[in-house]
Design goal:
alpha+beta; seven-stranded antiparallel sheet
């Protein structure tokens, strides 16, 4: 006899996807109405997806459409599913990381700083700019990030995308230059949360 997923299981998965979609939207500072308007949807329609009440949220094409309205990707949505929010002030808390993508956990309580010594990321950030980054927070597309390599070196870049084999970023020598980094060489990817001119 075939075993089917219960409605409770499907409902829980739908709510988890909806919560992740809501987190992406809030991270970008958009209301449900603003996010929905980007793809010709009402705020009520968007709200049903966030509440996990529309089964279409499981479909890849729907996820692409919804995350595209947020300048994000279905991978960004998948990374948030099941990740418990961590208060930024809680010392010693474990940060969000991509377990299934071979990145190590990083403390999220502390923000770190890195001063740029080159203009490789200009005009986004010039030499002398201090990047404040949050280990444990994954960047969204075109957001600054600091990549800790397996040899301990740090690479400030602009995040483009990633998959199981590689991380694709911009800013290696020039802002428009695309760089592909093997995932096996990457220890941690951390989103830049502030640029400080000092």
């Amino acid at each position: 006899m075939a075993r089917f997923t219960s409605d409770d299981d499907a409902g829980a998965e739908g709510r988890a996807l909806g919560d992740a979609l809501a987190a992406l939207r809030r991270e970008r500072g958009l209301s449900q109405a603003e996010a929905g308007a980007r793809i010709g949807m009402t705020s009520q329609g968007w709200g049903l997806y966030e509440a996990g009440k529309r089964p279409g949220l499981f479909r890849p094409d729907v996820q692409r459409r919804l995350t595209g309205a947020l300048d994000a990707t279905p991978e960004d949505l998948a990374l948030l599913v099941g990740a418990a929010p961590v208060p930024a002030t809680k010392p010693g808390a474990e940060g969000f990381h991509a377990r299934g993508r071979a990145f190590e956990a990083a403390p999220a309580a502390e923000r770190r700083r890195l001063q740029l010594s080159t203009d490789d990321l200009a005009p986004w950030a010039a030499a002398g700019t201090v990047l404040e980054y949050a280990p444990g927070r994954w960047p969204r597309r075109d957001q600054g990030c600091v990549i800790e390599m397996d040899d301990g070196s740090l690479r400030p870049r602009l995040y483009v995308r990633s998959d199981e084999a590689e991380l694709v970023v911009r800013g290696a020598g020039a802002l428009l230059t695309i760089e592909r980094i093997a995932r096996a060489r990457v220890r941690v990817v951390a989103a830049v949360v502030a640029r400080l001119d000092e």
